[in-house]
Design brief:
Shape: globular
Number of helices: 9
Number of strands: 8
Helix content: 40-55%
Distance between the termini: 26 Å
Radius of gyration: 17 Å
């Protein structure tokens, strides 16, 4: 990668390369000649999927190590919806570090009054709600619905889109959500089709986080040139 360009490193904390490849495809439209380079990588020591609090805790220090040892990187994105290791990674680097859950929520609130979240499984929801309470945004939450998927199934499972659509319709019709967040990086490839099907904004949180990383770098670059 051109060392003269600013560089955003998007880290998938699990070792499932299909998730990383899917994120990279969905970010293809974010590349332009004068913008930062965007690189998507997997965490080699990460579990195949992150679906529990134990998984989250297990990747925190390996993520910190990757961030602290990465060179020629101007911004980092932690591309797992639970934002594992976000705060220790921010301590480990002077460069900005973005978590996709935090960025997805902030983006959703900029697109509508009340947001809904599609979670992988019921057990994911408790973790997400704890995070929302920490952010102080519970009153903007319309609801959260589980699609009944594993991380792997969210990428390419049978009937995945139908399950996402069913959860999205519940959020829109029963919970009165104005916007919907995909609560797993693996769901990214379904964003555009799902938004078209349900008629309200659907947020890919990886795209949201990379957008914020790009904004931070481009505004810094503009300031340094002025």
């Amino acid at each position: 990668m051109d060392n003269q360009r600013q560089h955003i490193l998007v880290i998938n904390p699990n070792s499932d390369e299909s998730v990383t490849e899917g994120m990279s495809r969905e970010l293809s439209g974010f590349h332009f000649s004068e913008g930062p380079g965007i690189e998507c990588v997997s965490l080699p020591d990460g579990p195949f999927s992150i679906e529990s609090q134990a998984d989250i805790e297990a990747v925190t220090l390996p993520l910190r190590k990757m961030v602290s040892e990465s060179r020629n990187v101007d911004a980092f994105v932690i591309a797992c919806y639970s934002d594992p290791g976000l705060h220790v990674c921010r301590e480990a680097s002077e460069k900005p570090v973005f978590g996709i859950q935090e960025c997805g929520i902030l983006t959703a609130m900029s697109r509508g009054d009340r947001f809904g979240v599609i979670a992988l499984q019921e057990r994911s929801i408790r973790r997400h709600l704890r995070y929302l309470r920490q952010m102080g945004v519970m009153e903007r939450l319309a609801g959260e619905r589980a699609a009944g998927l594993s991380v792997g199934e969210s990428v390419s499972g049978k009937d995945t889109f139908e399950k996402l659509q069913a959860a999205a319709k519940q959020l829109r019709d029963s919970d009165q959500a104005d916007t919907i967040i995909l609560g797993c990086a693996g769901m990214a490839s379904h964003r555009a089709k799902l938004e078209s099907a349900i008629g309200i904004p659907v947020i890919n949180p990886v795209q949201a986080a990379v957008s914020m990383a790009m904004h931070s770098l481009l505004t810094k670059q503009q300031y340094e040139k002025s």
